[in-house]
């Protein structure tokens, strides 16, 4: 774009911030965004800051400067960086927080980001202190705060070499910075300045620039503890002081070799208990939250030492931190209690890993008190008529409580928790207390030993004889508890029939129906043989699904329960029952196809409703079949449904949602029938071929993989499967080879390579000799850099399985397969090695590199000599014309270590460390 006039810039800024017309605001925002992207924005931002016409224009200019330095510094020649630095320093010297704190922050970030990207600016910290000291201390504090924070910014891509250089510079200047902050806090009575000083110290602690040994003499840390002790501290200062102490404790956890420092910090923090109680007494919930964070961090810092010490028979002085955390769990606000959850998760992990009974016993009292307090927090409000719904904060909290209790319950034992809650129920308590106790029981229900004869029978009996007038929330939790007791019910068959009858009756209440259906599903699945005696009861309930107006989820759960019961019938009866259950849904689906009305999601006019029910029936039927049997009792039901299913796809195939559910439905039908549905292979392959040719919906590729899984051992089906691959592959690859085709279609990448994996695993010779592999490998090479977890994982699994074929073919056609694989690896190995290395260092997240490492290790082991040259060439092609890059020596070192690596763990570590040099 041409350089706009300053008047035009001011008009656009005014429109962005002051114009009440939303369209004009949006128009101004888009235009100013284009200005920021242009090369002219450097000069425009500088002029706006010099003119200082108004706050909005200054903020726009400062934000532009920060954005340009962060993302577009390469637009300026290196010799212009010094001039830019001097300009930013000048603007900062003229900026005061009284005028605009936000402008000051943006300019500080711009200068910090520039310093980090200017390796030529040696001793930048001391230079900044000299430049600003006694001129604008507030600006200096802001710069010293944001500079450490920006070191690990993913936007800057400094590279590990530069990060190490900067961190060393920070450490070498810690003393002078600490002294400057001490003088600032001593000389200023301004709370806002104190806030900034604490935040600055926190930044330096977080990047490990502060020496733990010097903590006792650190004035800012002492001041932070003083703020936390003072009940009159303002909330913002209190929160900043809490952040500072938490950062310090986290740092201590990684560097805890000085017991004197440990004791000093522990005593200082644990002494804050009285301050916490004062905050609670004065209803200062924000401060209580801060203390909970500090006490939790204290517990986590010392947790490993506490556990090791108790394992050795000696209590640790920091054990009291768990008491402090429990005090916070006792706070009236469940959000304060929730802050401590990670501590309890970590404690349970430590205790579980050690598996030492005396250690487990030591923490029983803590966990008992924890569960008791959590039961109180799980109580609903007395005026509520039902349980919290999914999506509500209280629902999410109770879900977290359930997860935590499941994790820690082994320490006290499930029966103990059941007994504890049962004792609560014996008293004359309110409905919300009753419901909370039942909810805690529900959390441990699946862990109850089947041999428990004391409390569970009384609870089950009480549930089954519950009066109709019982509060709705209590009834719902009782139903869910029955579902969780499914394994106990399986061992106590006399309870099954009354439980089923109770739950079937509960289906008639819309507010209880989903809970009842899921409980039926759980119980029928756990008690399959016994439940088969009650198929008629369950079938009647399934037939009444629409009459009862069950939600789609409730209906599917009921169908799954019915299928579990049907699966244990003798095969002749099973076939009849399955046809009856499926036909009820297929009949409605057939009517829908004929009617041609409008599809309304989740109603009877939605084909997905019926497809999901059919899928549920085939999914859970779980029939026991011997290898010798040629027929399957569920096959008649699938054959009955197939013509209607074809019609559904023909009519609704343009709707991606319906297609996905259709494929899912057929998938479960095929999985259920296995190789016995081979007669349907030509029709299934034909439908998928036609549909994918017209719609290219990725779920068709997934279903093709399922067909291959089930039918690969049937010779008659194999030609249809190979032909299906040949037919769908060109369309899929064409889709992925478009501009941004990989990033726009990760589902296709995922499902296509899952399909290829199955071909490699099931019929490798046919796949390798089909002629499609060169194109598939080219696509896989491009997809190595796709930053999508599932899709990239499928690509890597395919490549690993393919290369493994060249290293260790495991089939009867070993020589032929190895020859074909070797030829393909020779042709594509070099490019593939480069793609894997480039993806690792330039494109993929660190957590994705384990699978890349597995592939690279296998590839380098295929032929050592070739692998040596491929890796060397791949490293030589990595970008060098950037600040974040490995040195020649580091590339050589990586090559040496990678060629010696024997285990994936080793290769993954090498890739992660090497990648950090480019990020």
TrEMBL record:
Domain (Exportin-1/Importin-beta-like): residue spans on this chain: 103-245
Gene3D superfamilies: Leucine-rich Repeat Variant (1.25.10.10)
Cellular component aspect of the GO annotation: cytoplasm
GO BP, one annotated term: protein import into nucleus
One of the record's GO molecular function terms: small GTPase binding
UniProt xrefs under Pfam families: IBN_N (PF03810), TPR_TNPO3_IPO13_2nd (PF24138), TPR_TNPO3_IPO13_3rd (PF24140), TPR_TNPO3_IPO13_4th (PF24139), Xpo1 (PF08389)
Segments forming domain Importin N-terminal: 28-92
Protein name per UniProt: Transportin-3
Organism: Arctia plantaginis
